[in-house]
Amino acid sequence: MTFDLLVKNATLPDGRTGQDIAVTGGRIAAIEPGIAAEAGRVIDAGGLLVAPPFVDCHFHMDATLSLGLPRLNQSGTLLEGIALWGELKPLLTHEEVIERALRYCDLAVSQGLLAVRSHVDVCDDRLLAVEALLEAKAKVKPYLDLQLVAFPQDGYFRAPTAARNLDRALDMGVDVVGGIPHFERTMADGAASVTALCEIAAKRGLMIDLHCDESDDPMSRHIETLAAETQRLGLGGRAVGSHLTSMHSMDNYYVSKLLPLMREAGVAAIANPLINITLQGRHDTYPRRRGLTRIPEMRALGIPVAFGQDCTMDPWYGLGGADMLDVAHMGVHAVPMTSREAIRWAFEAVTTVPAAILGLEGYGLAAGCNADFVLLQAADPIEAVRLRATRLAVVRRGRVIAETAPRHARLTLDGRPALVDPAAYRPPVGKN
């Protein structure tokens, strides 16, 4: 038998080594040792890690790469970022939004990031960004899965036309219902917005993903309402609370009741380490809060938790680069969670966990799955997070769509090696 692509001698995230991956017709035909067959292209993985592609389950593609337009965020706060975005929105053009989105997707593909859930602001009555990202979604479909969330950035009730615009966006083909209850004028309005948005998701049969309690205020408790409405309306497995940063300051007894409610309701959580640690705690002196939600506690209860990137070079965050290993690396430090098991989980938090939250079909490394995967310059998932490993090859539906040369350094030191490979510095086998 002749295959389209054959990857030899790969290590898989579950620890299996010496595995060959055979691909035909855009799908994985077999994964096993010693596949002897011809192929249109053969890649020797050299014992390095082959993983399913990275997934970013929380992003804002309508704002990406707009850093400095029309000015910079001087305070570095969430609220100034929202105000700055409000200044930029009237200046946006359809062509510019598409071009920035496509450029960002080029960068994403080069980093092995092949699926993105992006929130798109619906508070501009033109719905310009919605139209632009729907067009971008169609353009990138051959190489990247783009899922869009109708996001009333200025508040579902607070912005006069947000409710109507959200319905219009969903009618146009946007995939997911979004919201931002903590940005409403009152706590009561925030809770009412959660109920209204959940009812829209239930009526339309859609998923819901709310920016929820992105605040240092321990009394911002809209996640409780989201969990209750999810349970009431049968949205379990389709509902997500993103950010949830107020939880870092909540009373421990209250959280001991809240987390089981989330688990019972089937609500997933998305933390955004790069942004949460940057935007939160801005009113603190010392001690200063880290800003992330209670990730280990949610994991311990079996609540699905994923990491998102949120922003790249936009009004809220001047850094970023479509690198989900950078996100995982920050998560490990910011939580903190430095056990070997937790670091290995951080790799899952940017691959398999968000893929499940997005409901990606055909995702994974098994016969019959889509032939989408990444060859990394690392021996295993822990090393991939440690090194933020180079993506040597990115495969989409069995076709290599991006390649990067290995990272090596040449030394000219007497008595020392001529070549340094960072992937060779892993701990002894058995320490992972």
UniProtKB/TrEMBL annotation:
The keyword Lyase does not apply. Keywords: Hydrolase, Metal-binding. Residues 41-401 form the Amidohydrolase domain. Signal peptide: none annotated. GO terms for molecular function: cytosine deaminase activity; isoguanine deaminase activity; metal ion binding. GO terms for biological process: cytosine catabolic process. It comes from the Bacteria. Gene3D superfamilies: Metal-dependent hydrolases, Urease, subunit C, domain 1. The keyword Hydrolase applies. InterPro entries: Amidohydro_3 (IPR013108), Metal-dep_hydrolase_composite (IPR011059), Metal_Hydrolase (IPR032466), Metallo-hydrolase_Enzymes (IPR052349). Pfam families: Amidohydro_3 (PF07969). This is Amidohydrolase family protein. It comes from Segnochrobactrum spirostomi.
